[in-house]
Design a protein that fits this description.
Elements (H helix, E strand, L loop, with lengths): L1 H29 L5 E8 L3 H14 L3 E8 L1 H9 L5 E4 L5 H9 L5 E15 L6 E3 H8 L9 E4 L5 H10 L9 E3 L3 H10 L3 E6 L1 H4 L6 H4 L2 E3 L1 E3 L6 E2 L3 H5 L6 E8 L6 H10 L1 H10 L2 E2 L19
Parallel strand pairs: 1-2, 1-3, 5-10, 6-7, 6-8
Antiparallel strand pairs: 3-12, 4-8, 4-9, 4-12, 4-13, 10-11
Length: 307
């Protein structure tokens, strides 16, 4: 009787193990490069352009479902390193130290650049001076007072814009006096629109593609033209100045895929780096990583319409 019970127990274990394996196999088969569901953790400063890409991708491939999870840059990278997120979108490439960590886990991240974004400085509309020297902003971050700047306003202490400006200023921390932090880019825009003398530091994507509730608020701020550290002219975060590499606060956008197989992450990365995805970037006001081609039909003579 005991032998029979053991044999029965072994058969049940084998059956359940086989069922679990079959279930995992079936789940894997549900996802392809154009089918299935995927969570993408996104740097919140570039959420708008990612939402546009996802909307067109899902509208093209009906069996694909992508959920966008906006977070600060620090959270995005931590989720990726701790394997809580398999696909992320960031405003920087992985560092050598981060790549080494993935190598130890035998993970080969696929990093695909797809757009050029920018950090933008904004001020209250009542401020007639729409020019600012990058050196003045860096001096302020280094704790050196500047009569033209009452304060700097960031979206989040852990955001990519804060990290970007700290690296430029070569400081580990921003000063407590005169520096304000909120939670979102929209809160920064609203605060600056209501307070003269403040300079907001945000991702330019939020200016080109404001949420419906921010349309009127955007009209109350100026986007400042910036002079680089080497002096010279003042340039704006426009496609033209980004394309000519004149704007001093440009940055690239990357999609980083750590799925490790040919899944929806690979399909979405190929999409946003392809012709349609690059046209979406172009329309958004950012600069595509690859300029979409145009087909021109040249005729030797103009054909008039017959009356």
């Amino acid at each position: 009787m005991l032998k029979y019970s053991k044999a029965l127990g072994l058969m049940v274990f084998v059956f359940l193990f086989a069922m679990c394996n079959q279930k995992s196999k079936n789940e894997a088969e549900k996802e392809t490069i154009l089918k299935g569901s995927l969570d993408i953790t996104v740097d919140e400063t570039v959420k708008q352009i990612v939402d546009d890409q996802v909307a067109v991708f899902e509208g093209t491939y009906y069996d694909a479902k992508i959920t966008v999870k906006p977070k600060s840059e620090a959270e995005v990278i931590n989720d990726l390193l701790n394997q809580k997120a398999k696909v992320v979108i960031t405003t920087r490439d992985l560092t050598p130290k981060e790549k080494t960590r993935f190598e130890k886990s035998k993970i080969n991240p696929r990093v695909t650049p797809f757009a050029r974004d920018a950090v933008a400085f904004i001020s209250n509309k009542s401020n007639n001076d729409t020019l600012v020297a990058l050196k003045s902003v860096i001096d302020f971050i280094q704790g050196k007072p500047d009569g033209k700047i009452k304060g700097l306003v960031f979206d989040n202490p852990n955001s990519s814009t804060v990290r970007y400006m700290k690296e430029l200023a070569k400081v580990n921390e921003v000063p407590k006096a005169g520096v304000f932090s909120f939670k979102t880019n929209n809160e920064v825009i609203k605060f600056v629109s209501e307070n003269d003398g403040m300079i907001g530091v945000i991702g330019v994507n939020w200016l080109y593609q404001p949420t419906p509730d921010m349309t009127e608020t955007i009209k109350k701020i100026n986007v400042l033209s910036v002079q680089g550290l080497n002096g010279g002219g003042y340039y704006s975060p426009t496609q033209n100045d980004l394309g000519e590499e004149k704007y001093p606060l440009a940055r690239d956008l990357f999609i980083i895929n750590c799925q490790g197989y040919s899944g929806l992450g690979m399909g979405f990365a190929s999409f946003i780096a392809g012709d349609i995805g690059q046209r979406i970037v172009l329309k958004s006001g950012l600069l595509p990583y690859k300029t979409p081609g145009r087909k021109l039909k040249i005729r030797s003579e103009i054909i008039k319409d017959k009356e």
